[in-house]
Amino acid sequence: MRITRFRWWHIAEVLPIEEDLFGSEKWSAAMFWNELAQRNFYLVAEDEGGKVAGYAGLSVVDQDESWVQNIAVSRDAQRRGTGRQLLEALLAEAGGRKVLLEVAVDNAPAQRLYAGYDFEPVGIRRGYYQPSNTDALVMMRSA
């Protein structure tokens, strides 16, 4: 797996992954364009053939805080360490800042991944994911 910067041409490749993993709660192309326009830190994981297998983004708020915007790995590339590689790259970019993220309360595998990197639950956002009205667990890793 090769981790590289997410560029505008990757948007078309990540949209099918979004659709498959998140269905009606998927991000649109416009949302990814907006993230890139704001110069947020985004990466893609490409397999040996150059196909996008996953992606992740980080928003640096200020010198003390950053937020993981998303981490997604295609179903056929899951459980191979791709999510870990992406998360580690985001944490390296965050440097000494505290890092926060939201994860669906019913996504136990992702919560275990984050807990393995010292993220701890700090709150709940009721009805955060729409249209399913699923709650989000807010997790934080201290600086």
UniProtKB/TrEMBL annotation:
* Catalytic activity, reaction form: N-terminal L-alanyl-[ribosomal protein bS18] + acetyl-CoA = N-terminal N(alpha)-acetyl-L-alanyl-[ribosomal protein bS18] + CoA + H(+)
Where is the signal peptide, in residue numbers? none
Q: Which cellular component appears as one GO term in the record?
A: cytoplasm
One GO molecular function term of this record is: protein-N-terminal-alanine acetyltransferase activity
Q: Does the keyword Glycoprotein apply?
A: no
Extract the Pfam families matched here: Acetyltransf_1
What is the predominant subcellular site recorded for this chain? cytoplasm
Residues that span the membrane, as ranges: none
Q: Which domain of life is it from?
A: Bacteria
Q: Where in the cell is it found?
A: Cytoplasm
Residues of the N-acetyltransferase domain: 1-143
**InterPro entries, sorted:** AcTrfase_RimI/Ard1, Acyl_CoA_acyltransferase, Bact_Acetyltransf, GNAT_dom
Q: Name the keywords, alphabetized.
A: Acyltransferase, Cytoplasm, Transferase
Q: What is its EC number?
A: 2.3.1.266
Family classification: Belongs to the acetyltransferase family. RimI subfamily.
What this protein is reported to do is described as: Acetylates the N-terminal alanine of ribosomal protein bS18.
The identity of this protein, by name, is [Ribosomal protein bS18]-alanine N-acetyltransferase
What is the organism field in this record? Actinoplanes digitatis
